[in-house]
């Protein structure tokens, strides 16, 4: 079945279609384009019009353009519009308007993408789910997700992010969610905001897009919770809070973090449930509570959602844990690698360090003799004028007491390196590439290694280097 016909797309965008084409998908990248996709020639780092001919050669059903590019035949299937970004937004609005899906939108300073994936998994037993790809949560990612929504979708999950004030509300109004969730408000993007309250007001603006009768789901344990609650009062018909405090509608009573899993007890309104996610971190259990609130508000099956969460693990780079069998050239034995190298701010750093602190290294496996908890931390970006102090303050995080060695990457992380006690201070390098060359010397069998940093710090290169020291080994069932 066609996702978009030429006539439908032209009506949605106010554009002019050449030919009577059909598109089975929507793409912005010729590297991943599939035959039948509508290629959207966005202008970003490069002008997408330069790739239209390539997209058509790869089998694109048509291209959304503001001009006919050079090298494109006169009879090529095109949708010609005044502005490609505006047209993509129109296509997204039309995709949302024609859908019967129940829609959820998620934002927050930490955990947007992992919570989006958690909600996707929780909803799948109840129907056909459409969710944003990767971290497609900005001015082009949200309309692209909506434009890609299949006609027969039952539930849609839209991730909404921001870098500057005023970005979330317009995207929420495009998504028009029935339920909107704020995971947490924490210091992130502070260079664009005066203070944490400013971030909270921006996050709370997601509720402005709620459909009539909509539900606001929010973290009830925050310093800025009153800001979220005030916005929910203005824009939502229903409000559900989650957290550990006794006043929350969904309350986490207990959570135990073990190798490869987090299990706990929670109370959903007056119903006590056993909660499990197949990854480590109290914060994952907390967000699972919010997910269950969203599931209930969407009218999906909460019991099936609980069962699905029991086997859920985060996507790569967002806290996944794997066991690596090291080659004999390094040393015989295994290490546990926690890959959290996609994003970082003080709140997510603290959560990841808590996971590391709870992990159990293995003794008597390597040259060191004692298994260690090792943190490899890259710069946290976009923290504003207080960034140096925020990096140094990590040395006082309670979890640091249980970390044996901390290696630091980046100019900002040098402030943490200087603040660490001598016995914990590992290597400092100005860039990730320098630490990559030392990967074999900083890990030893029996270690548990956390790699965490903002994407721009490129500490994912260190993750790749550590993986290349050996190969993945599935963790035994008893250890999960």
TrEMBL record:
GO terms for cellular component: cytoplasm. Residues 334-454 form the Mur ligase C-terminal domain. Residues 24-88 form the Mur ligase N-terminal catalytic domain. One of its GO terms (biological process) is regulation of cell shape. Gene3D superfamilies: Mur ligase, C-terminal domain (3.90.190.20), Mur-like, catalytic domain (3.40.1190.10), MurE/MurF, N-terminal domain (3.40.1390.10). It is an enzyme of class 6 (ligase). Pfam families: Mur_ligase, Mur_ligase_C, Mur_ligase_M. GO terms for molecular function: ATP binding; UDP-N-acetylmuramoyl-tripeptide-D-alanyl-D-alanine ligase activity; UDP-N-acetylmuramoylalanyl-D-glutamyl-2,6-diaminopimelate-D-alanyl-D-alanine ligase activity. Keywords: ATP-binding, Cell cycle, Cell division, Cell shape, Cell wall biogenesis/degradation, Cytoplasm, Ligase, Nucleotide-binding, Peptidoglycan synthesis. Residues 106-295 form the Mur ligase central domain. Pathway: Cell wall biogenesis; peptidoglycan biosynthesis. Signal peptide: none annotated. InterPro entries: Mur-like_cat_sf, Mur_ligase_C, Mur_ligase_C_dom_sf, Mur_ligase_cen, Mur_ligase_N, MurCDEF_CellWall_CoF430Synth, MurE/MurF_N, UDP-N-AcMur_synth. Belongs to the MurCDEF family. MurF subfamily. PANTHER family: UDP-N-ACETYLMURAMOYL-TRIPEPTIDE--D-ALANYL-D-ALANINE LIGASE. Involved in cell wall formation. Catalyzes the final step in the synthesis of UDP-N-acetylmuramoyl-pentapeptide, the precursor of murein. This is UDP-N-acetylmuramoyl-tripeptide--D-alanyl-D-alanine ligase.
């Amino acid at each position: 079945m066609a996702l978009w016909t030429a006539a439908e797309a032209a009506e949605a965008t106010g554009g002019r279609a050449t030919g009577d084409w059909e598109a089975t998908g929507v793409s912005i990248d010729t590297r991943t384009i599939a035959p039948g996709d509508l290629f959207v020639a966005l202008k970003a780092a490069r002008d997408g019009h330069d790739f239209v001919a390539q997209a058509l050669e790869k089998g694109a059903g048509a291209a959304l353009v503001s001009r006919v590019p050079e090298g494109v035949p006169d009879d090529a299937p095109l949708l010609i519009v005044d502005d490609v970004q505006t047209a993509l937004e129109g296509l997204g609005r039309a995709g949302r308007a024609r859908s019967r899906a129940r829609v959820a939108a998620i934002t927050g300073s930490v955990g947007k993408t992992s919570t989006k994936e958690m909600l996707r998994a929780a909803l799948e037993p109840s129907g056909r789910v459409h969710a944003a790809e990767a971290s497609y949560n900005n001015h082009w990612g949200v309309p692209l997700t909506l434009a890609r929504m299949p006609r027969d979708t039952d539930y849609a999950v839209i991730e909404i992010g921001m870098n500057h004030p005023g970005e979330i509300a317009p995207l929420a109004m495009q998504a028009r969610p029935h339920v909107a969730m704020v995971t947490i408000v924490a210091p992130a993007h502070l260079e664009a905001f005066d203070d944490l309250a400013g971030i909270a007001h921006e996050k709370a603006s997601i509720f402005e897009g709620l459909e009539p009768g909509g539900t606001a789901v929010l973290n009830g344990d925050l310093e800025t919770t009153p800001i979220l609650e005030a916005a929910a009062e203005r824009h939502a018909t229903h409000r559900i809070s989650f957290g550990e405090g006794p006043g929350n509608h969904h309350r986490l009573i207990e959570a135990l973090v073990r190798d490869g899993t987090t299990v706990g007890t929670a109370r959903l309104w007056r119903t006590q449930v056993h909660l499990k996610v197949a990854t480590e971190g109290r914060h994952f259990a907390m967000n699972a509570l919010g997910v269950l609130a969203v599931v209930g508000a969407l009218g999906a099956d909460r019991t099936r959602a609980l069962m699905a969460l029991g086997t859920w693990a985060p996507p790569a780079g967002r806290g996944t844990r794997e066991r690596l069998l090291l080659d004999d050239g390094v040393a015989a034995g295994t290490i546990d690698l926690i890959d959290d190298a996609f994003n970082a701010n003080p709140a997510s750093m603290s959560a990841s360090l808590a996971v590391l602190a709870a992990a159990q290294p293995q003794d008597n496996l390597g040259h060191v003799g004692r298994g260690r908890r090792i943190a490899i931390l890259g710069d946290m970006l976009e923290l504003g004028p207080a960034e140096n102090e925020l990096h140094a303050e990590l040395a006082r995080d309670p979890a640091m007491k249980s970390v044996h060695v901390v290696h630091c990457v980046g100019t900002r992380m040098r402030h943490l390196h200087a603040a660490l006690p001598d016995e914990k201070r590992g290597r400092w390098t100005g860039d990730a590439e320098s630490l990559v060359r030392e990967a074999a010397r900083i890990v030893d069998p029996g270690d548990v290694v956390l790699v965490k940093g903002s994407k721009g710090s490129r500490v994912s290169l260190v993750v790749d280097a550590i993986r290349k020291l050996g190969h993945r080994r599935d963790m035994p069932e008893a250890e999960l």
